[in-house]
Amino acid sequence: MTQVTMEVNGRRVAEEAPARMHLGDFLRDRLRLTGTHLGCEHGVCGACTVLLDGAPVRSCISYAVACEGRRVTTIEGYDGDPVMRRLREAFTRHHALQCGYCTPGMLTTARDIVLRLPGADEARIRTELAGNLCRCTGYMGIVAAVMSVLGQLRESPDAEVDTLRSALAHGDGGVPAIPAPPVAFEAFEAFTAKAVAPAAGGAPMAGAQATSSAGKTNQIDGMFEVPFPAERLWAFMADLPAVAACLPGAAIEEQQGDRVKGTVSIKFGPMRAAFNGAARLDRDDAAMRAVFRGAGQDTFSRSRATGDIIYQVEDAGNGHALARVKLAYSLQGPLAQFSRSGLVQDFVRRMIADFGANVAARLAGTAHTQPLPASFNAFGMLFRVLRASIQRWFKRGS
Predict the structure, then answer these.
(1) Which of 22, 96, 227, 337 has the maximum number of C-beta atoms within 10 A of its C-beta?
(2) Cβ(87)–Cβ(111) below 8 Å
(3) What is the mean pLDDT of each run of 10 residues along the chain (398 residues)?
(4) Using CA atoms, how far apart are residues 297 and 165, in angstroms rounded to an integer?
(5) CA-CA distances (angstroms) from residue 138 to 44, 111, 219?
(6) Cβ-Cβ contacts under 8 Å for 344 (sequence gap 6 or more)
(7) What is this structure's pTM?
């Protein structure tokens, strides 16, 4: 537990919180400010938007301890605010809410638009509101409400609003100053435990742990060992077509030096995803370390993925080599929900083990002659993981 001190809605608060507690949970559970709503908890829907030193942030992906000494404004903290007063009236007048769940985040974002973009037209307002999702209104009333407030202020300028705009331009955001010195808002890297399971009969061994890291990024750390020298494994891992051949569903369609274009196909029961994208490999041959940076979009759901695969090849002794693998990725869109699965640790452990086994088989020249499946069947692997988990449970029970 860590003592966290910040200014919330003009009042200094000090509460204990775990190092990994998000700001949204801190506001709701520690301070009982339940006007901040939590929706997707991935930083996608915008329902949890609050102001941090006057700038909108997603409280579901901001750590509370990273807000030490900062100023936070929630939907409960706008009493007397001239912009929010106008926006609330406009939202009522234009029927800009139905269920109301997204409204606190919508109002917070709308206030930022009014202050930061006094000349915004309808197209710009829609672009600015794209980060706040609403399943009820169709956005027509919300856009009309924001446009009406901007129109009012252009026709009849308000000295109080002009003061807030000037404060925002100078980085103050129109919220009271806090005596504590400013603290840089930095993302926290997730702590990830690593484990290597003993391999039987010289087979590769693998271990992985999946956690959520700061921002929109998930991080997976793992490793596998093969009974071949490090130099040979490095030569193989630097060969992009060879690596892709060990990944079911991966296919390289075009390669120019260390840049490639291709697809990764995944099947999860009746659901399919096929990410088309491009990637670049940055290599350090002396250190036997490489970073594979890529981005792609699923042709079916329009979900987007970006990520880095960092791998380091090391000498494990006795003619063996160890490959340490770190995957940091961001998934946005309908498929983002699957990154929260409670089985993700076992799932990733099995996936890395299978990849290591394929690498070892190809290095040994014993790989199957038939090509790997055209798509990665996540449902089949999930079934195997579930079956193994149930077997372990029954063994413990007996």
Answers:
(1) 96
(2) yes
(3) 93 92 94 94 93 94 94 94 96 93 96 94 93 92 95 94 87 47 36 36 38 49 87 86 75 81 66 74 88 78 75 90 80 58 54 80 70 46 49 54
(4) 38
(5) 17, 20, 35
(6) 210
(7) 0.47
Distance, in Å, from the CA atom of 158 to the CA atom of 115, rounded to the nearest integer, reads 12
| Encoded tokens for 231 | 């130099």
Residues of the chain with CATH 3.10.20.30: 2-169
Q: How far is CA 59 from CA 5, 16, 49, 51, 87, in A?
A: 16, 17, 6, 9, 22
Q: Where in the chain is the domain with CATH 3.30.530.20?
A: 206-397
Task: Confirm if 338 and 267 have CB atoms less than 8 A apart.
Answer: no
Q: Given its phi and psi angles, is residue 122 left (phi above 0), alpha (psi -120 to 50 degrees) or beta?
A: alpha
* Residue keyed to tokens 């990154």: 339
Architecture of domain 2-169: Roll (3.10)
CATH class of 206-397: alpha beta
